[in-house]
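REQUEST ID: PR-0412
SUBMITTED BY: lab tech R.K.
PRIORITY: routine
TASK: structure prediction, single protein chain
INPUT:
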Amino acid sequence: MADEEEVVDEEAEVVQVGSAESESGLSPVEVEKPLPPPKYEVRPGLGEKFQAQNVREIIISTMQEQLTGRQYRTDQAPRWAKVISNAVRQRVQDLDMKRYKILVQTTVLEMKGAGIKCGQRCIWDPETDDYVGELFRNDTIFCHTVVYGVYMY
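STATUS: complete
OUTPUT:
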């Protein structure tokens, strides 16, 4: 009789384990066909590289739209720089260059006859990454905009 009680206890444990699996929603593993190997894009495809000439045209037209006919104003220069940067970034993103991170830097200065020196340094892949910079000048405004296109691996 003691043996029968042990058998009943073992059966109860098996039932509990089985019921716990069904409650959690686990089902028997079905064999599916294997997935294809992942494709890693390390370089942009043909025709997907940074479109420097199109970006240059966007920079020039945006700066002309925003600054033509204006006189330099210290209180307005930061706003102009933001407007130009945001407009250029949006228009460049509309070119749909896949997997490119677009960075835009705009500097608006007053023309007073003084010179300016600046430098930039980046670590990037010269085969995929690129930049374009353009100037706008009138009697009182000097504006320099640079767009960087960094390919995201």
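NOTES: The radius of gyration is 31 Å.
REVIEWED BY: pending
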